[in-house]
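Q: Trace token order:
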Amino acid sequence: MKKFVSLVFLLFCSCNEQQQEVDCTGVAGGDAICGCTDSTAVNFSSIATDDDGTCEDCTGDIGGDAICGCTDSTAVNFSFIATNDDGNCVSIEKLTFESTGSINAHFEIKKEVSQRFRCTVFSYNDGTVNIDSVLGHIEQGPLEDNFDLLNDIFNNVINISDLVDSLSNNTEINITVLLNNNDQQLHEDFYPSEELLDILYFIQDNVSEWCPEGYLKIDNICYHPGDMEILQDLVGNFAPSVLDTMDGPYWVDGRLVGFICEGCTIQDTLPPSLGGLNELRDLMILNTSLSGELPEALYNLENLSTLRLLNNELSGVIPVAICNFDVNNMEIDLSQNQFCPPYPECIEDYIGEQACDE
């Protein structure tokens, strides 16, 4: 009987040992969890208790110590511990300011190159202005501190949050920081610090001298580039700097509103591009060798109030489209050219004497 009990006990112990699992270290019934225990490895296991030698760095090397991340210190996601750049650095693309109170302004500042910023003002003191200017370190002179502040913000030396002032100064602003991965950071409804106020004051001091976006500034005057190209089509090649010395063209807010040419040098014909001068009010070309037909684009000039083309060599048939003009309420004179009949009824009183060569 004793032999039977002993045999049962041995069988029970043997079966119990066979049921116990062996952990990753080979210990039966052990609780070790093997894996990569290096927190800098790409395959790090947060539950591993025993390192199994499989740790892999970001370059794919087993046992390597490379740490990938952004190594650009000016980026907002700069990593102090990264040894290899992963190409995913995130930088500030632009700042958008919207201020209310003593200064009402909406403008944005973008960094172009290391020493240049572009400021575009969309509105100022509730007026739509849509102007821009390039800011450079050397250009600023006494405003060098403002330039350095912008440089520090874009280079991640200073955070917008560090420039929040809790004191009321009758101005409140929202600033949107746009990153190059299209993410945005909004800082809203706070009173600007003196440093940020200096940027607002800089806009206030300079907004009246800046040109609309895309305009050309010559001798402190802004010119619409499209109008200048058409003017060049009219008079031939010229250096833009001669605009100040020309009496014929006159401009309002950078747009060509009048062209007067009496006995001056001009191209042979009126260019089709003439229709692009949509702010033109006065077109007067007298006593020149201007020839050819009137271009159809001429009749698209809705703001034209004076059309005097007398004593030239213009020819052809004048189309009925000229009656698109309010000829009874504008000054018009087409006499002493070579236009041939029939003449549209609306201009019969303005056609004058013609030397039609049929």
Summary: The chain has five helices and 22 strands.
